[in-house]
Amino acid sequence: MSTTTGASPRASQRERGRPENEQAVAVPVGHLKARRSPRLVAAGLLVACLGGLGGAMAYQQASHANQVIVVQHTVPRGEVVRQSDLAVVTIGSAPGVHTTPARDLDALIGRRALVDLPAGSLVATESVGEPRLPDGTAQLGLKLAAGRLPVEPLPAGTPVDLVEVTSDKQGVTAATQSSSLVVEARIQTAGQPSPDGSAVVLDVAVPAAQAQRIADLAARDLLVIVRRPGG
């Protein structure tokens, strides 16, 4: 004996009483798709691209970072470079810019500035070292009393004349006439006060053939420095 289970009478009546155009239609679940706004999609792509670009730039800067030497306090040409004059900074890639790596910092201390080094500038390797004198030139240290050189500072590189003078019994100094010595020279290091403050000491570059005579005149206080026009 078999038993057949059919739809309930009420359900059958409802189905039979519904018009054909209102019959339930089953829609497969797999055919349902969420709608995406084209603007949101474009914005998302733009954010992703910008994020990737920013990350790439940050990586590039970090991978090309260099520690170099920078001038902390201005150093005039010819002056000795001290440790307090320099510092170390980190910069990115700078093609064409002459720099000195931080590892060479100690090698610069105690050497002379070959050019003016303004505060905030990067130190090029060739801007610090020992001045090279032209052939036939000697570097001479002078100690001159007040009144023997201009009051205005004479920075390194300034062209000057070294002039021989005479002194009479009353201590009046004047340039000699026929035998006066006038030598063209150039300041090598700017003048600094002597320890007792009574004189100024400085280095000058002079013709080697005249160095001995100039030193003798300076020792006898018979030499003055005159700044040349345009110097």
TrEMBL record:
Keyword Membrane: yes
Protein origin, superkingdom: Bacteria
Keyword Transmembrane helix assigned: yes
Biased composition (Polar residues): 1-11
Transmembrane annotation, as ranges: 40-59
Biased composition (Basic and acidic residues): 12-21
Keywords: Membrane, Transmembrane, Transmembrane helix
Annotated signal sequence range: none
Disordered: region residues: 1-23
One Pfam assignment: SAF
All copies of domain SAF, residue ranges: 66-129
Listed name of the protein: SAF domain-containing protein
Source organism (scientific name): Luteococcus japonicus
